[in-house]
Amino acid sequence: MRRTLKQKLAALVPAWNGRVQDIPASGEVLTGPCAVIAFSEEVPKSAWAGYRRIIKISPYARPEDGGAEQVEVWSAALMEGLHQFRLEDEEGGAFTCIYLGSSDCDRVDASSGLVTRSLRFGVYVPETVEHAQTEIADPWMAALQGWTRTQLGQEWSIYGDVWPGGYRAQSILWRLTGCSTTTAGTSALEIRKHWIGHVLAVNVGDVRQTVTLLVEQLAVQTRIALTDTGDTRYVTVDEVSADLQADAYLNGQIRLTLQQRIRRPGTDAPLIREIHHSKGIE
């Protein structure tokens, strides 16, 4: 991860000439324009997103080259190039960077005289899955994933419940977030399941277009066929909405509620076999 991030930073700011380094040793003085990357705390974030590693990236500029104004330009380039951006290390492990803000104000480094500022990013790394999920237990999830693949094509990767370690650049994650039931008359139940959809793509335009397409098609088609039964049954789209400003990797942009009506199971109460009636009873 460290090497991959350094290579990405060097590509984003060619003026550094590849000078992206770890925290300098005691007594070492920085020279010329460069960047320093520091790794901070690492905490579990969520069951589907894995853990989060905080990193601080500090660009350094010479006062005669623009000082604080140059740092501002480089900071903007880092935010645009890293925020919600997927990277992949040498082993094929994928991770996503999310900008968390600046941790301090502009300052002058006492030893070098260079102007700098620290930017905070969260690096989200999925948990390693010990065994591959070869079979999806929930038929609703299988149907939703199959429907999504039909809409988007084979070039998209469709995942369920958690981000895998090597998730692709064009991918969809569907997560089940809740389930509820209500009675519908005396002989039926309505089951509702609530889902969140994460749409990850190479650029913002592709994300916006894909989110909009999925929401529109869910609103138009309204029914999704279940795939695990011989006789065709359906789940119905009850509600669907999208937040295009939501974080794709962590929070997801699509909110979806599916419902299905089923018969209530019969009871074991004894049946009335005969009724005797006599008008003479007072």
Tell me the distance between the termini: 91 Å
Question: CATH-wise, what's the superfamily of the largest domain?
Answer: Phage tail protein-like
Kindly report the average pLDDT value. Answer: 87
Derived structural class: alpha+beta
Query: Spans with pLDDT under 50 lasting ≥5 residues?
Result: none
Number of strands: 14
Key structural traits:
14 strands; six-stranded mixed β-sheet; single chain
Verbal overview:
The structure is a single chain. Helices cover 21% and strands 37% of the residues. It is an alpha+beta fold and 282 residues long. The chain has 2 domains: 2-125, STM4215-like, CATH 3.30.2000; 139-263, STM4215-like (2-Layer Sandwich). The strands form 2 sheets. Strands 1, 2, 3, 4, 5, 6, 7 and 8 form an 8-stranded mixed β-sheet that branches. Strands 9-10-11-14-13-12 form a 6-stranded mixed β-sheet. A hairpin with a 4-residue loop joins β10 and β11 (188-200). The radius of gyration is 27 Å and the shape is elongated. The model has no long low-confidence stretch (mean pLDDT 87).
Topology:
Elements: H1 2-12, E1 20-21, E2 34-46, E3 50-61, H2 68-82, E4 85-88, E5 94-102, E6 107-108, E7 115-116, E8 119-125, H3 139-152, E9 157-160, E10 171-183, E11 188-200, H4 204-221, E12 223-225, E13 234-242, E14 254-263
Parallel strand pairs: 1-2, 9-10
Antiparallel strand pairs: 2-3, 3-7, 3-8, 4-5, 5-8, 6-7, 10-11, 11-14, 12-13, 13-14
